Automatic annotation (TrEMBL):
UniProt domain Chromo: residue ranges: 243-290
Protein species of origin: Leptobrachium leishanense (Leishan spiny toad)
Domain of life of the organism encoding this protein: Eukaryota
PANTHER family: PROTEIN CBG26694 (PTHR37984), PROTEIN NYNRIN-LIKE (PTHR37984:SF5)
GO biological processes: DNA integration
PROSITE patterns documented for this protein: CHROMO_2, INTEGRASE
Protein name per Swiss-Prot or TrEMBL: Uncharacterized protein
UniProt cross-references to SMART domains, sorted A to Z: CHROMO
Principal location class: nucleus
Length: 300
C-alpha cells in the first residue's frame, strides 16, 4: 500500500516469473525498491507473508461452501477481518496502524475537516506509528531469542565443496517417496549467496532454482565405509554418445507417443527420465519390463 507517509524500500518475494522479469527489476530499481528473493523451499525467508496467507486460508476454510467454489467472494470479508484483527506483536490492528482509527462496520459520512483537525490527525498517526514500531521491535527481539534457543550455528561451506541435497521438496520418479532416498547428489557449491544460502551446480534436467537454504544441505563426509558416487560418462554407440540403461521402470503414452521411464547405470532416482520408446535402445530390458507388466501401455 502506498501513501504520502510510507515508502517500502524492501520487497521480499518468491521467484515467480512475474517477480524475476526484467520489467519488474527495472521498475523496482527506478522507484528505489531493493529486491530480495526467498531461497527455494524455505518459506521462513518471508515468514510474515506466509503467516498472513495462513490466516486468510483459515478464514476461508471456516466459511467456504462444500464445493469450494465461492472462495473469491469471501476474500473481501477475509481481508476486512484480518485488517481489523489486533496483532499480538503490535497491539493494534493493521488498519489502525495505517490510518490511526478502526474501520467502521458500516460506511459513514464524515464532515469536512479543517486544517487544524488534519494536523491533530497527523500527530495522532505519528504517535500510533511510534507505539507500533516500539512494539514490533520488542516482539522481534523476543521472537528471535525464542527461535535462536532451538537453533545451532549454520554450517559454513566453501566454493567447490560437495554437499547432499534434501529430496524433501523434489519430486523423484519413484513409486513411493517414503522409501526414496532422503538426500540426493552430491552437488558442488558454486557460490555463497548469504550466510545461510548457497547456489549448487544442479544437473540440467532438475528444473528448479539452484539456491537452497543450509537446512536442506548436508556436508559430504567420506571415510573408508562411504564413497561419493561419480556418475559414469556416456559411451559411444555408432558414433553417438549414449548412457547405459539399467532398467525400464514404467511406460506411458504422452501426446500420442509411447514413452519409457528409464533408470540409468550409475545414476540415482533424481536422474531418471521419460524418453520416447524410439530413443531407448535396450530391447532386452524392454522385454523384461513387459514380462513383469504385460498390461502396461505398449504391451501385448
Amino acid at each position: 500500500m502506498w501513501s504520502a507517509y510510507t515508502v517500502f524500500l524492501l520487497d521480499i518475494s518468491d521467484r515467480g516469473t512475474q517477480f524475476v522479469s526484467r520489467f519488474w527489476k527495472g521498475f523496482c530499481k527506478n522507484v528505489g525498491i531493493d529486491l530480495s528473493f526467498s531461497s527455494a523451499y524455505h518459506p521462513q525467508t518471508n515468514g510474515a507473508a506466509e503467516r498472513a496467507n495462513q490466516n486468510i486460508e483459515k478464514y476461508l476454510r471456516c466459511f467456504i461452501s462444500d464445493k469450494q467454489d465461492n472462495w473469491s467472494d469471501l476474500l473481501p470479508w477475509a481481508e476486512y477481518a484480518l485488517n481489523n484483527a489486533v496483532s499480538e506483536s503490535t497491539g493494534h490492528s493493521p488498519f489502525f496502524t495505517v490510518y490511526g482509527f478502526d474501520p467502521p462496520v458500516l460506511p459513514a459520512t464524515f464532515p469536512d475537516t479543517a486544517i487544524p483537525a488534519l494536523d491533530e490527525h497527523l500527530v495522532s498517526l505519528k504517535e500510533t506509528w511510534g507505539r507500533v514500531k516500539r512494539a514490533l521491535e520488542e516482539s522481534s527481539v523476543i521472537q528471535k531469542i525464542k527461535a535462536d534457543s532451538h537453533r545451532r550455528p549454520a554450517p559454513v561451506y566453501q566454493v567447490g565443496d560437495r554437499v547432499w541435497l534434501s529430496s524433501r521438496n523434489i519430486k523423484l520418479l519413484v513409486p513411493s517417496m517414503k522409501l526414496a532416498p532422503r538426500y540426493i547428489g552430491p552437488y558442488k557449491i558454486l557460490r555463497r549467496i548469504n550466510p545461510v544460502s548457497y547456489a549448487l551446480a544442479l544437473p540440467s534436467h532438475i528444473r528448479i532454482h539452484n539456491v537452497f537454504h543450509v537446512s536442506l544441505l548436508k556436508p559430504l563426509l567420506c571415510n573408508r565405509y562411504t564413497r561419493a558416487r561419480v556418475p559414469p560418462p556416456p559411451v559411444s554407440v555408432e558414433g553417438e554418445e549414449e548412457f547405459e540403461v539399467k532398467a525400464i521402470l514404467g511406460a506411458r503414452v504422452s501426446r500420442g507417443v509411447l514413452q519409457y521411464l528409464v533408470d540409468w547405470v550409475g545414476y540415482g532416482p533424481e536422474d531418471r527420465s521419460w524418453l520416447p520408446a524410439t530413443e531407448v535402445h535396450a530391447p532386452r530390458l524392454v522385454r523384461a519390463f513387459y514380462l513383469a507388466h504385460p498390461r502396461a501401455p505398449g504391451g501385448r
